[in-house]
Amino acid sequence: MEQGNQTQVTEFIFLGFSSLPHGQAFLFLVFLMIYLITLVGNSMIFTLIQLDSHLHSPMYFLLSHLSCLDICFSSVTVPKILVNFLRERQTISYSKCMAQMFFLMSCAGAECALLAVMAYDRYAAICNPLRYTDIMSRQVCFPLAMGSWLWGLLDSAIHTFMASSLSFCGANQLHHIFCDVPPLLKLACSDTYVNEIALHVASVFVGLSPFLFIVISYLYILAAILRIHSNTGRRKAFSTCAAHLIVVTIYFGMANLNYNRPSTGYTVGVDTLVSTLYCIVTPMLNPLIYSLRNQEVKRALRKALGSQRRECAAQCRQ
Fold first, then answer.
1. For the chain, which has fewer Cβ within 10 Å, the N-terminal or C-terminal residue?
2. Domains and CATH numbers, the chain
3. Between the CA of residue 46 and those of 50, 52, 64, 291, what are the distances in Å?
């Protein structure tokens, strides 16, 4: 589309996997496997929480939202990547790029907030056990979970609106594997100063603030655990936090590498690897971490599998 003497960009070309022209089929299988594990693992966690009455507690209610969020997070990017592996040119239209960026940032912001809410839940359970049911009642849990989703949507709407007002003319090659704010700002031919300021402000409020809240919550949790006299009690308290701590460490570590690394000194390959770990591998790891580290989830899974085997055996006898 012509705009003055400049050609307005109508599509973007992804260069993230351009250095591996002969490995597209292998990468397709790898990403397909990761996506299927993500869908199955998170769907399993969500279904178990809905079906098993022993998992109807605030902690697992929030975990079910994390599972839904991880499914959305992965589904925003991976299907398009898989389609592009089957095409000669890995492209995305301008409108779809804006949509992908909107949903990607929505999921990223919502997950930051939700992980902070889950830390508050662990703080209430360990530091105020007698008041836990009141502090994390249904009337509190549901608004906190919904607020996490809205937090991400609001942040994403601001960035997407600002990005859509930029002009993209001439260059349309994204050194990335999906549409995100930083690589798009590098291609814009209009002034991006306000967008960059907004991105830094958002990294403080949307990323850093929840992380600091989590750190402070766990400092209180650690102090409370150290006051427990029995080793059994300490181990039980630590076990309820271990999975969440691992997920927080991986997620915020990958987010920091993805958004706050220096703009120079990194190749397209490194950018692609970091982005893959952050947006594609992390959602796959979360259900694996919770299912391997959580005894109640493993018990619910064994119970569900046992019931299924008994039903199959009964049908076979008939």
1. C
2. 11-317 (1.20.1070.10)
3. 6, 10, 5, 11
Average pLDDT of the residues in 228-241: 81
In whole angstroms, how far apart are CA 296 and each of 56, 75, 116? Answer: 11, 28, 22
- The length of the chain, given as a count of residues: 318
The pTM (predicted TM-score) of the whole model is 0.89
Listed in sequence order, the residues at least 6 apart from 277 whose beta carbon sits closer than 8 Å to its beta carbon are 254, 257
Q: Give dist(CA 170, CA 189) in Å, integer.
A: 8
**What is the per-residue pLDDT for 156?**
94
Mean pLDDT of the chain: 85
Residue 162, CB half-sphere, CA atoms under 13 Å: how many?
A: 21
Q: Report how far residue 122's alpha carbon sits from residue 247's, in angstroms, rounded to the nearest whole number.
A: 14
Smallest CA-to-CA distance from 104 within 84, 74, 81 is with 74
pLDDT tens readout for residues 73-103:
999 999 999 998 888 888 999 999 999 999 9
E-strand ranges in 24-180 read 91-93, 173-174
